[in-house]
């Protein structure tokens, strides 16, 4: 039998043919007491109180649609007014030119949207969460690349036709005689490289940092593309209002990015927060405990995440996102970290007392998404971190059912705490333990298994955190069991 199932409803019940004792499944993780007490920032003995939760976003989806619709409508209106539609209907080189202008304008808008989204502006992040922003960023990015390529092809063909030269001659003429065209060519090349490097296959072959720094050149690509829009774009050459509209859009984008990126960094620099302890939680998993004088003033909900940057040698120049894995209190916050690659093992070796910069909190993966509803929480591996924090925020009336998928028991971090939380809330805990191959014949997360584990599945809200393959399998199962997609909440650890 490969599946161990523990149901915790006040008493232990083992559904495993090997009849293991439940006690053998319990291996409490302990905070390294020596590390805590040796830390200069160890929590002073006071009654820990819960930190305030972040303010709710008042932004509505319709507000965002209205602003985007307005920007696109004004831009297309100006193009129309400058004879764009007429030229498009006429045919000949004029049509090519109109297509070039239209795709250029839309490419520029899409690129501004993409860089705004990736800057994680708080007003959007608090409403949609980073996941959704990154999904939207991806679509804006893909649209930018497609439109930029279409714009380059149509623009060059139109230029060649209108000046009566070959395509190559037209391209050479553009690059040699028109200002900002070399910059535009570099911009197009960068967009194409960024687009290609974001395909799953190439991205997986690159180190995260290589991919990230390559992606950062997107800002340069947008900047380099801007010059030729003003010097060559007929809409902006002749019409002062159009010119200022375009400059205004660019300045608004810069302001949002500076405010989000630099503002976030400045806030994290002003916070006085320190690592108070590092504890081991399981095989290749540990926790970073953080506290400091600034913590009391922060607003954090369990399940949110921070961009964490310890100011220690070799680590200060890199920042990684980690979720809060317990209810954030004045006694400190905790991040549960799996050793994945280059930096995470070093993060778990940081000395207590090290200053740490926390940017955030970010994310909308919090219990507030399902206040008053019955819950099912599904975690795989270190996905348990935000799920553990959400469980702590559950009310017994929400009858939480927690399904934990781990390859081996040592991978189940915070098990003792979780069992206590489940017991206190009258919930149930199901563990699915074993390597993936064991479950080839019988998928433990298929519809029938899910329905057997989760009574009243269709009316519950689900919180899921784990690898993409598990998430999609579970979502499929939950949807087939009648759970509406609006009740399914995800946190993705990959970007
Ligand atoms: C919203 C969110 C919350 C997360 N919460 C947790 C958590 O609570 N516990 C935990 O163990 N892990 C969490 N992660 C994943 C964690 O950030 C990465 O595992 C970690 O950054 C890997 O760093 P590395 O240098 O050891 O590995 P690398 O070898 O550099 O990377 C391994 C993989 O981790 C991802 N990754 C690396 N750096 C980053 C980064 N700066 N931003 C996003 N992804 C990155 C990439 O997909 C990469 O392929 C979270 C990720 C996200 C996006």
Automatic annotation (TrEMBL):
Listed Pfam families: FAD_binding_8, Ferric_reduct, NAD_binding_1
Membrane-spanning residues: 59-79, 99-119, 139-160, 180-199, 211-232, 244-262
Region (Disordered): 1-20, 37-57
A single GO molecular function term of this UniProt record: 2 iron, 2 sulfur cluster binding
Extent of Basic residues compositional bias: 47-57
Limits of the FAD-binding FR-type domain: 268-368
Cofactors that this protein relies on: FAD
Organism: freshwater metagenome
Membrane topology: Multi-pass membrane protein
Localization annotation: Membrane
Name listed for the protein in its UniProt record: Unannotated protein
Major subcellular location class: membrane
A single GO cellular-component term on record: membrane
InterPro entries named in the record: FAD-bd_8 (IPR013112), FAD-bd_FR_type (IPR017927), Fe3_Rdtase_TM_dom (IPR013130), FNR_nucleotide-bd (IPR039261), MRET (IPR050415), OxRdtase_FAD/NAD-bd (IPR001433), Riboflavin_synthase-like_b-brl (IPR017938)
Keywords tagged on the record: 2Fe-2S, FAD, Flavoprotein, Iron, Iron-sulfur, Membrane, Metal-binding, Oxidoreductase, Transmembrane, Transmembrane helix
Gene3D superfamilies for the chain: Nucleotide-binding domain of ferredoxin-NADP reductase (FNR) module, Translation factors
Keyword Transmembrane helix set for record: yes
């Amino acid at each position: 039998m490969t599946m161990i199932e523990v149901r915790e409803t006040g008493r232990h019940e083992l559904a495993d043919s090997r009849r293991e004792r439940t006690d053998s499944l319990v291996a409490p993780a302990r905070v390294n007491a020596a590390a805590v007490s040796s830390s200069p920032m160890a929590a002073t003995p006071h009654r820990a109180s819960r930190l305030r939760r972040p303010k709710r976003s008042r932004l509505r989806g319709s507000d965002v649609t209205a602003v985007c619709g307005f920007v696109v409508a004004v831009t297309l209106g100006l193009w129309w007014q400058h004879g764009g539609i007429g030229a498009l209907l006429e045919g000949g080189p004029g049509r090519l030119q109109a297509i070039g202008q239209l795709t250029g304008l839309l490419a520029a808008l899409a690129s501004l949207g993409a860089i705004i989204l990736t800057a994680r502006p708080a007003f959007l992040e608090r409403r949609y969460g980073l996941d959704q922003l990154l999904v939207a960023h991806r679509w804006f990015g893909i649209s930018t690349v497609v439109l930029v390529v279409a714009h380059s092809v149509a623009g060059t063909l139109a230029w060649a036709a209108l000046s009566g030269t070959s395509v190559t001659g037209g391209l050479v003429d553009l690059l040699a005689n028109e200002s900002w065209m070399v910059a535009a060519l570099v911009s197009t090349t960068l967009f194409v490289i960024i687009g290609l490097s974001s395909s799953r296959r190439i991205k997986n072959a690159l180190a995260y940092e290589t991919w990230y720094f390559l992606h950062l050149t997107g800002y340069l690509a947008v900047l380099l593309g801007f010059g030729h829009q003003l010097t060559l774009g007929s809409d902006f050459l002749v019409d002062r209002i159009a010119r200022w509209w375009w400059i205004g859009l660019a300045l608004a984008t810069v302001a949002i990015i500076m405010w989000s990126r630099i503002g976030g960094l400045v806030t994290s620099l002003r916070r006085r927060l320190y690592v108070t302890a590092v504890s081991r939680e399981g095989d290749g998993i540990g926790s970073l405990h953080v506290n400091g004088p600034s913590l009391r003033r922060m607003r954090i909900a369990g399940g949110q995440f921070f961009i964490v940057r310890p100011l220690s040698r070799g680590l200060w120049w890199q920042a990684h996102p980690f979720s809060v894995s317990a209810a954030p209190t004045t006694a400190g916050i905790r991040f549960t970290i799996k050793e994945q690659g280059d930096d995470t093992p070093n993060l778990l070796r940081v000395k207590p007392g090290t200053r740490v910069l926390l940017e955030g909190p970010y994310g909308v993966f919090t219990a507030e998404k399902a206040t008053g509803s019955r819950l099912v929480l599904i975690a795989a591996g270190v996905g348990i971190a935000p799920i553990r924090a959400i469980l702590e925020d559950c009310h017994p009336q929400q009858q939480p059912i927690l399904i934990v998928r781990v390859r081996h028991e040592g991978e189940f971090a915070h098990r003792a705490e979780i069992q206590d939380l489940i017991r206190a809330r009258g919930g149930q805990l199901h563990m699915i333990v074993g390597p993936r191959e064991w479950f080839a014949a019988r998928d433990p997360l298929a519809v029938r298994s899910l329905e057997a584990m989760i009574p009243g599945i269709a009316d519950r809200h689900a919180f899921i955190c784990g690898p993409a393959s598990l998430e999609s399998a579970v979502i499929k199962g939950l949807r087939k069991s009648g759970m509406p997609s609006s009740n399914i909440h995800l946190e993705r650890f990959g970007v």
